[in-house]
């Protein structure tokens, strides 16, 4: 076949104008020509749609034309379907970014490498920002007025930790990568969330009644509907329940109540010109500790300044021959003294030995070294003294620096001294080796000489008086189960396993002291003999004053082991509190836990707000809420940040 038979030919008229191809071309030639034209069109469109250089901004006018064509074709009808062109990074249509509703996002293989580089850059910048946050004091937060829990950027936070708002998930995820969780933290299980909400309502009931009947007073009489003040608070109205309960309110998300309490502290908590005799120990753990905790979790410098103001009022108590502080101080005159009953005027181990967490932290956030220096002096005096059988007696004479009466206890008079040795080490990010070694040595001796096992297999800390064991354990000593388990997780083997198992055993014994009473609440002290185990004998040991130590150990053991028994035991305590201690005006202690209808003592202790309810709430919360990896609790359950680990440490 000749070439002239394949290619189309043109015949010209006498006027030399082209004659229509439809008339002159054969049918095969028309089909071939159509395929060629269609191929050219497809090639043009393919170039526009699929070449990556055109999608990155080289030919934007052409892309705009493509989108116009696409929109025009859409009008033809659903029977004519074209796939939407991929949207480029800089794709702009009529001055606005294109958003195509209903489109399923698919990864663009041309951009995967760029996305990976961008993601790595973002993660690096976030790490750098976190490190920088550790070195600066965050600004005072806005305190919202909503009755519900409030989250970040004006979002509303629910008690279970959920956040409302279109961008709330993104905001929450971003903050989780930057700051420790101090609100929210609801458990995934609906049943656990419901139990936590019950505890939250208990706090609301306790606080509202205090605010109604005793606002500004130290504590509440929930049956008499009036204020109450123990001797440890002197004769003044210092709002102990307000200061003690503020961080619990904040953690639970009661922001209206928190704001009212915060404003009261700012306007009314002032010890200048007040002549009243206060307990140095109680003022430190409740007021200084509570205020510093609020400063850490909120960044509000008012709390730091109030803590500094109160701590400075305590300093004259340290003006002794040894630097061991007295137990009581008149904040008006600066004179101080010890209790006459305390081994010929000795200072008490659990009091002068329970200052380090607050005072060391206060020095770091104010830049004033005097508070840390006071603690260092106490430690040096203690280390110089020979310890009888390696144990720490409960009394030390501040004049001579010598031990007083030979009474050793993991409960009253001794307890929190051991707790603060461990937590001073943890608070320092494990750099305070001196505190660690003192703790390890103290526990080694105490475990070897005081730990006993009953005939029924219950493990407990006995007390020692003049080298003789007294088989009695205080409710106060039940904190030691959590302390030993917490310490064990940070120690090396074989101490690690030994201390954790011992902590579990002691906590089991303390639960038994609750379970063997009629009210399912534990006595102030319980004894062991051939006749009884984990039960009180004397009438002055049978009362319950809303103490937290057993629940504290439930909380710590739950966090460390996730053994469900600790949540079950905690819920038993909630039910017992609701049944026997709740009254219309708040919560009251009991005079006899073994009575089916116990007499109530008509006192709502401030530590019920600070400790008991806080530990119960955290027991039923996510582990990230006030994480044990980022915080240490002072002996009044006020969380203080761990240095170099927690960006809320806010040191200067």
Task: For the structure shown, list the relevant keywords.
mainly alpha, three-stranded antiparallel β-sheet, disordered N terminus
Description:
With 652 residues, this protein is mainly α. 47% of the residues lie in helices and 9% in strands. It has 21 helices and 21 strands. A three-stranded antiparallel sheet has the order 5-6-7. Strand 18 and strand 19 form a beta hairpin. Helix 15 runs antiparallel to helix 16 and helix 19 runs parallel beside helix 21. The longest helix is centred in the first third of the chain and has 24 residues. The chain starts with 20 loop residues before the first helix and ends in an 11-residue tail after the last strand. The relative contact order is 0.09. The N terminus is likely disordered.
Question: Brief overview, please?
Answer:
This protein is mainly alpha-helical.
Topology:
Layout: H1 21-24, H2 27-50, H3 52-58, H4 60-74, E1 92-93, E2 96-97, H5 112-133, H6 168-176, H7 190-213, E3 219-221, E4 226-228, H8 240-252, H9 255-268, E5 277-279, H10 280-298, H11 301-314, E6 328-330, E7 336-337, E8 347-348, H12 349-352, H13 356-366, H14 370-384, E9 395-396, E10 407-408, H15 415-427, H16 433-450, E11 451-453, E12 459-461, E13 463-465, E14 468-470, E15 472-474, H17 479-490, H18 495-515, E16 525-528, E17 533-535, H19 549-561, H20 564-581, E18 582-583, E19 586-587, H21 606-619, E20 631-633, E21 639-641
Antiparallel strand pairs: 1-2, 3-4, 5-6, 6-7, 8-9, 10-13, 11-12, 13-14, 15-16, 16-17, 18-19, 20-21
């Amino acid at each position: 076949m000749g070439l002239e038979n394949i290619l189309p030919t043109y015949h010209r008229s006498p006027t030399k104008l082209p004659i229509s191809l439809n008339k002159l071309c054969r049918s095969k030639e028309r089909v071939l020509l159509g395929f060629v034209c269609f191929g050219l069109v497809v090639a043009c469109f393919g170039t526009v749609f699929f070449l990556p250089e055109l999608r990155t901004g080289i030919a934007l006018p052409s892309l705009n034309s493509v989108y116009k064509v696409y929109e025009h074709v859409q009008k033809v009808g659903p029977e004519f379907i074209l796939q939407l062109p991929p949207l480029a990074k800089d794709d702009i249509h009529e001055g606005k970014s294109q958003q195509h509703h209903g489109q399923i996002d698919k990864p663009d293989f041309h951009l995967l490498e760029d996305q990976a580089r961008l993601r790595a850059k973002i993660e690096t910048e976030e790490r750098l920002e976190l490190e920088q946050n550790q070195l600066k004091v965050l600004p005072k937060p806005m305190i919202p007025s909503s009755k519900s829990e409030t989250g970040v950027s004006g979002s509303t936070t629910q008690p279970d930790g959920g956040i409302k708002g279109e961008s709330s998930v993104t905001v929450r995820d971003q903050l989780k990568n930057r700051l420790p969780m101090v609100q929210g933290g609801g458990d995934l299980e609906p049943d656990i969330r419901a139990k936590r909400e019950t505890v939250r309502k208990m706090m609301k009931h306790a606080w509202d009644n205090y605010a109604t009947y005793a606002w500004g007073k130290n504590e509440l009489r929930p049956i008499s509907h009036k204020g109450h003040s123990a001797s440890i608070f002197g004769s003044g109205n210092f709002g102990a329940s307000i200061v003690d309960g503020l961080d619990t309110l904040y953690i639970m998300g009661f922001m209206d109540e928190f704001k009212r309490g915060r404003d009261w502290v700012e306007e009314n908590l002032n010890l200048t010109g007040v002549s009243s005799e206060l307990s140095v120990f109680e003022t430190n753990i409740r007021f200084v500790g509570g205020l510093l905790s609020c400063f850490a979790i909120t960044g509000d410098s008012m709390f730091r300044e109030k803590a500094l103001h109160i701590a400075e009022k305590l300093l004259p108590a340290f003006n002794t021959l040894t630097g061991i502080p007295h137990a009581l101080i008149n904040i008006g005159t600066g004179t101080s003294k010890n209790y006459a009953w305390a081994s010929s005027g000795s200072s008490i181990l659990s009091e002068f030995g329970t200052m380090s967490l607050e005072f060391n932290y206060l020095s770091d956030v104010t830049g004033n070294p005097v508070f840390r220096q006071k603690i260092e002096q106490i430690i040096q005096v203690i280390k110089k003294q020979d310890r009888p059988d390696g144990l720490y007696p409960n009394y030390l004479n501040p004049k001579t620096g010598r031990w007083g009466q030979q009474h050793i206890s993991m409960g009253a008079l001794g307890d929190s001294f051991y707790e603060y040795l461990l937590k001073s080490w943890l608070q320092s990010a494990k750099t305070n080796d001196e505190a660690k070694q003192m703790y390890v040595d103290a526990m080694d001796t105490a475990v070897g000489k005081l730990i006993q096992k009953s005939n029924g297999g219950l493990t407990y800390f006995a007390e020692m008086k003049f080298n003789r064991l007294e088989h009695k354990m205080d409710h106060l000593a039940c904190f030691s189960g959590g302390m030993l388990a917490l310490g064990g997780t940070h120690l090396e083997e074989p101490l690690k396993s030994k201390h954790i198992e011992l902590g579990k055993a002691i906590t089991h014994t303390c639960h038994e002291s609750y379970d063997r009473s009629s009210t399912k609440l534990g006595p102030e002290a319980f004894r062991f003999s051939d006749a009884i185990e984990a039960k009180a004998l004397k009438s002055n040991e049978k009362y319950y004053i809303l103490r937290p130590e057993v629940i504290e150990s439930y909380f710590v053991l739950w966090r460390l082991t996730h053994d469900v028994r600790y949540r079950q035991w905690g819920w038993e305590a909630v039910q017992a509190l609701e049944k026997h201690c709740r009254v219309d005006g708040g919560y009251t202690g009991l005079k006899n836990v073994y009575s089916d209808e116990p007499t109530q003592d008509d006192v709502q202790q401030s530590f019920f707000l600070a400790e008991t309810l806080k530990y119960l709430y955290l027991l039923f919360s996510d582990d990230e809420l006030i994480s044990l990896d980022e915080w240490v609790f002072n002996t009044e359950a006020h969380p203080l940040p761990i240095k170099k680990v927690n960006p809320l440490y806010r040191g200067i």
